[in-house]
Amino acid sequence: MPSLQKIKAKRAQSSGRGAAASYRWQKQIVLSDGRRTTIRLGQLSVKAANEISDHIDYLIEAAKHSTRIHPDTEAWLQSADPKLVDKLSKLGLCKPSTNVSVSEFVSKYIQQNSCGWEENTIRNFRQVERLVQERFPVQRITELTKTDAADFYTWMRTTKGLGENSVKKHYQRTRQIFEHATDMELVGKNVFRVRAITTTVGVAEKQYIPPETIDAVIEYLPADKLEWKLLFAISRYLGLRIPSEIQQMTWADVDWSHNTITIHSPKTKRHPGGARRKAPIVPEIADLLSRQFAVPGEEQHVFPTLRRHTNLGTTAKKYVTKAGHEPWAEFWNALRASCETDMMDRYGLRRACKFIGNSPSVAMRHYSLLRNTDFLDDPKSDAKNDAVGARIAENDAEAMHENPQKQRVLCESAPPGGIEPPAKL
After folding, report:
1. Exposure of 137 in the CB half-sphere (CA atoms within 13 A)
2. Contacting residues for 27 by C-beta, under 8 A, at least 6 apart
3. Residue 8 is inside which H or E element, if any?
């Protein structure tokens, strides 16, 4: 009896006169231990059936003599039907299939790597997981092409109606996930490297938000929105990263005696000394902070409700509109840049960077905004600060170009002890 057999299947109901018969293939094999078994290959062409049969023979020979699998057969295993590969694996002829579905691979990646991630990071990757599952419900990771990757970007932008920066961020995370697939040699190349994506926003794309605008919003909000009032104030006058830097803030971080507040920064904690920094309790937030502290209860977090809010930006823009102002682009980041711009004038570049938690080069490149009032000021008033800032930024850029590892040092913020007196225990 031949090892490869063609079995005539039932003729399809739609088959008309002269239609070719439909055949299914199966292969009978003898394993190295003498066992006989049959592998059903399904409905195939003669050429495809013979090719698969040859690869199975190579696998049997390699298993029998404990030799390496032929490179062509190795390549075939990567692209073959995962169900067939799994059958061969159970017979001891090869390893289990690594050609998993796209959605399965993304889910497994998140599950294996999310242990040390922040809550927001996990939430962002889960969004990517849902998008990938919707766009690629059945595709295998080896089946994706550069066209699929490009279409994924367009699909998020048009069909899903996501904002440009949201699409870029989701695409970047998808590319990161499939970079791992490349490193694990599950795919030959990362098809999501088809386009260069950047979400960095320079100062030219940010609007300076004057204090009067935020004060008007705070004044508009009713008394029972005290937490929102403080959020607007602390984002504009201390330049916190929203939402990550308010989520861990507790009353133990507020040192009333030294007039400082400790800010925990998930974004920069991987840098030496970047896990936290100290900033002054500026007059613009002092009253609101005291009133929030006086709210009855035993809540330890400064923002007990908003720290769990999942869409602060949308709600905040509605409050801005109701207060009679037009919401601005890069909502929270524009407030942070406006704050650092003012801090540069009030405290100088060095202290402004320590309070905000970035480097002079980043501050000058992305956070130093031009205000309308700057055209009316004495041109000599900021000459010294501007010269120092430009010189530091230039030195930083040269250092990073010569040695990229120095970027960590340049990006570090205040040391654990801070630049102010130690916090009250």
Report:
1. 1
2. 3, 4, 5, 38, 39, 41, 52, 53, 56
3. strand 4-8
The tens digit of pLDDT for each residue in 375-407 reads 776 555 555 455 545 555 555 555 545 544 444
Residue 200's pLDDT band, with cuts at 50, 70 and 90, is low
Q: Count other Cβ atoms within 10 Å, centred on residue 52.
A: 21
CA distances from 412 to 37, 95, 269 (A): 64, 46, 9
Q: Domains of the chain by range and CATH?
A: 22-90 (no CATH), 102-193 (1.10.150.130), 203-411 (1.10.443.10)
Burial class (CB in 10 A: 0-12, 13-18, 19+), 380: exposed
User: Helix, strand, or coil here: 4?
Assistant: strand
Long-range (24+ apart) CB contacts under 8 A made by 129-133 are 129/103, 131/156, 131/160, 131/170, 132/102, 132/103, 132/106, 132/174, 133/103, 133/106
Could you give the CA distance from residue 117 to residue 301 in angstroms, rounded to a whole number? 21
**CB atoms closer than 10 angstroms to residue 255:** 19
Q: Which of 22-31, 76-85, 299-308, 326-335 has the lowest mean pLDDT?
A: 76-85
Listing DSSP states for 285-317 in one string gives HHHHHHHHHTSSS---BSSTTGGG-S-HHHHHH
Within 10 A of 327 (CB to CB), how many other CB atoms are there? 14
Q: What is the dihedral of CA 137, 143, 149, 150, to 10 degrees?
A: -110
Q: Where are the alpha helices (DSSP H) in 80-157?
A: 82-90, 102-113, 119-135, 146-157
- Please state the pTM of the whole predicted model: 0.61
First-to-last CA distance in the chain?
A: 85
- Angstrom CA distances, 271 to 131, 275, 379, stand at 31, 7, 37
Give which of 194, 152, 146 is closest to 170, Cα–Cα. Answer: 152
In terms of Cβ atoms closer than 10 Å to its own Cβ (0-12, 13-18, 19+), residue 105 is buried
Per the CB < 8 A criterion, the answer to whether 240 and 278 are in contact is: no
User: Can you tell me the distance from the alpha carbon of 215 to that of 325, in angstroms, rounded to the nearest whole number?
Assistant: 11
* Contact between residue 162 and residue 74 where contact means Cβ atoms under 8 Å apart: no
